[in-house]
Structures are given as structure tokens and as C-alpha cells.
């Protein structure tokens, strides 16, 4: 078990972002608590939306490129501009909003406004109360839910906009396990008073945060890997079945992360990110 001081360098926190502030503002608040040198999050949440915001501190920022690829789940409310039967909404969803869809990112997004494909795994209507339609949706990373609501309204011919949105899951991180910023501050203050238990419940080690294949490498190979050498079959504690292009975590015999890598062949991994322990 890492000492708290070291864990803070290699940690991820599952934050329950409130509606209102920018995701970047939540980063700054968490960074200030821990005096973090580096901080970032995996998947920006619309300012008016709430829910799971996965924040990485210090060395853990290096795994954000992996965490950002995770699928997302949301619950929300779409407001119809004119009323229409629930059955027609469900028919339109089944016809054009399940599976591969094409989106043009919203005007205020940070990415280029070019058509791009995203996967919608499920899109369920939970309840219809007048013009308010409650829904649950699971999508590929980078899918704009506000745009889905708008496009669905256009398809129905009545118009619609997103009224409420909460991210309930990002990869393996769920809303039921998330923490308020205030809770993090209180746990940090408790640690400074000598009680580290509440803070340990909040800080997630990098090794637990990653939901990718883990390759344990021999201690005798760690230094050359940190110097940039690829990981070969003879460097692994046991042979792994790797897929070409697969992201993997490189783990020491003691269970600590060494780096991230990309499988170049079934028995060779190119190092991509190195963690300085």
C-alpha cells in the first residue's frame, strides 16, 4: 500500500460534478486542495449537466488518454417543443438513433465541426410527462447528447432541446461511487489532522483506475523499459495474448504501474507513457 503522499501523485478521483460550473473549474478546485502540479479530466461535461467527472492528479494525468476512450452513460430529460406520442419517439429512436450515428459537433465545441460517426449502444425512454421525455442512453466517448436531443426533435418534426442531463457512468466509474468536492476537502483536512482513512476511500490508484490488460514485467527489465526499450516476451513474467494496437498497462512485480504501452506484435509492446516512481 502506497503512503498517502505517494498515492496523491498516482491517483484518480471520481467526482460528482454539480450543474453550473465548467469541468475545468472543478479541476482547479481539486487541484488547489492537493496542490497538484498537473491535473485533468476524462471527458468534459456540459456546464449545465452534472454527474461523473473522472479527475487525474499529477502522474495519473498520463492515463487520461486511456480513460477518455471509455463509453459513457447518461440519464436526462428532453423537452419537446410540440407534443407527440411516446410511440412515435421510440420508433424514431429505433430507426435512426441506435447503432452508428453521424453527428456534427455543436457550434461551441472545441473540436472541428465536421461530420463524425459515434456508436449509440442503447437509448431508452423511461417516462413521458407532457412535453418532457425522461431517457437513459449509453454511448461511445465523444457523443454529444445535447445534439442527439436536437436531432431527434428535427426527425420528429416538432423540435426539441435537452432540459437536464446527468452522467451516471464513465467506463468503470459510477455515480454511486462518486464524491462531492466538499467531501474531498473534508477528507483532506482529516488526513492533515492524522486520520487518513476517509481520504484513502476517495483516492483511486492508477492501477485500479485502468480497465485495460495489465502486463507484469520482470523487475530486472524495468530500468531499460524506463529508458525507452520495448517490452518483449522475455521481459514479461508470463506470456500474454496481445492484440495488435491494444493499449496495455505495464506493471511491476510488486503491483505498481511502470508505464503504458501499445502492442506492436503478439509479443512486443512499444512504451507510450512512463511513470517515474
- Show unreliable segments: none
> Which CATH C-level class of the largest domain is it?
Alpha Beta
The CA-CA distance between the termini, in Å, is 14 Å
The percent of residues in helical segments reads: 25-40%
CATH fold call of the largest domain: Pseudouridine synthase
Alpha-beta classification: alpha+beta
Query: Residue-averaged pLDDT, rounded?
Result: 93
The major β-sheet equals:
10 strands, mixed
- The CATH architecture assignment of the largest domain turns out to be 2-Layer Sandwich
Number of domains: 3
Backbone CA Rg = 21 Å
Number of helices: 9
Strand content: 25-35%
Superfamily at the CATH H level of the largest domain? Pseudouridine synthase
Q: Tell the overall outline.
A: globular
Number of beta strands:
15
- Secondary-structure element order, N to C: HEHEEHEHEEEHEEHHEHEHEEEE
Describe the secondary-structure layout:
Blueprint: H1 4-9, E1 11-17, H2 23-34, E2 39-41, E3 50-57, H3 64-67, E4 72-80, H4 86-96, E5 99-103, E6 116-129, E7 132-139, H5 145-156, E8 160-170, E9 173-174, H6 181-192, H7 197-202, E10 204-205, H8 206-209, E11 213-216, H9 222-226, E12 231-232, E13 247-251, E14 257-265, E15 268-274
Parallel strand pairs: 3-8, 11-13
Antiparallel strand pairs: 1-3, 1-10, 2-3, 4-7, 4-8, 5-6, 6-7, 8-9, 12-15, 13-14, 14-15
Helix pairs in contact: 2-6
Amino acid at each position: 500500500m502506497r503512503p498517502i503522499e505517494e498515492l496523491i501523485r498516482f491517483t484518480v478521483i471520481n467526482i460528482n460534478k454539480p450543474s453550473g460550473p465548467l469541468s475545468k473549474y472543478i479541476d482547479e478546485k481539486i487541484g488547489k486542495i492537493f496542490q497538484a502540479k498537473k491535473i485533468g479530466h476524462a471527458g468534459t461535461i456540459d456546464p449545465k449537466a452534472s454527474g461523473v467527472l473522472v479527475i487525474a492528479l499529477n502522474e495519473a494525468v498520463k492515463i487520461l488518454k486511456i480513460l477518455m476512450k471509455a463509453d459513457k452513460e447518461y440519464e436526462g430529460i428532453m423537452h419537446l417543443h410540440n407534443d407527440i406520442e411516446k410511440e412515435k419517439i421510440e420508433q424514431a429512436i429505433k430507426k435512426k438513433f441506435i447503432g452508428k450515428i453521424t453527428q456534427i459537433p455543436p457550434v461551441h465545441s472545441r473540436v472541428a465541426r465536421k461530420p463524425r460517426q459515434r456508436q449509440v449502444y442503447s437509448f431508452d425512454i423511461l417516462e413521458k410527462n407532457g412535453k418532457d421525455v425522461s431517457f437513459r442512453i449509453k454511448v461511445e466517448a465523444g457523443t454529444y447528447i445535447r445534439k442527439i436531443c436536437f436531432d431527434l426533435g428535427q426527425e420528429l418534426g416538432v423540435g426539441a432541446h435537452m432540459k437536464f442531463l446527468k452522467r451516471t457512468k464513465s467506463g468503470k466509474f459510477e455515480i454511486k461511487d462518486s464524491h462531492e468536492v466538499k467531501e474531498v476537502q473534508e477528507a483532506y483536512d482529516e488526513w492533515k489532522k492524522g486520520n487518513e482513512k476517509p481520504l484513502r476511500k476517495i483516492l483511486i490508484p492508477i492501477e485500479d483506475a485502468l480497465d485495460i490488460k495489465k502486463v507484469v514485467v520482470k523487475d530486472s527489465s524495468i530500468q531499460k523499459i524506463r529508458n525507452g526499450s520495448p517490452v518483449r516476451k522475455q521481459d514479461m513474467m508470463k506470456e500474454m495474448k496481445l492484440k495488435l494496437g491494444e493499449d496495455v498497462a505495464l506493471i511491476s512485480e510488486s503491483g505498481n504501474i511502470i508505464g503504458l504501452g501499445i502492442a506492436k506484435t503478439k509479443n512486443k509492446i512499444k512504451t507510450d507513457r512512463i511513470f517515474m516512481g
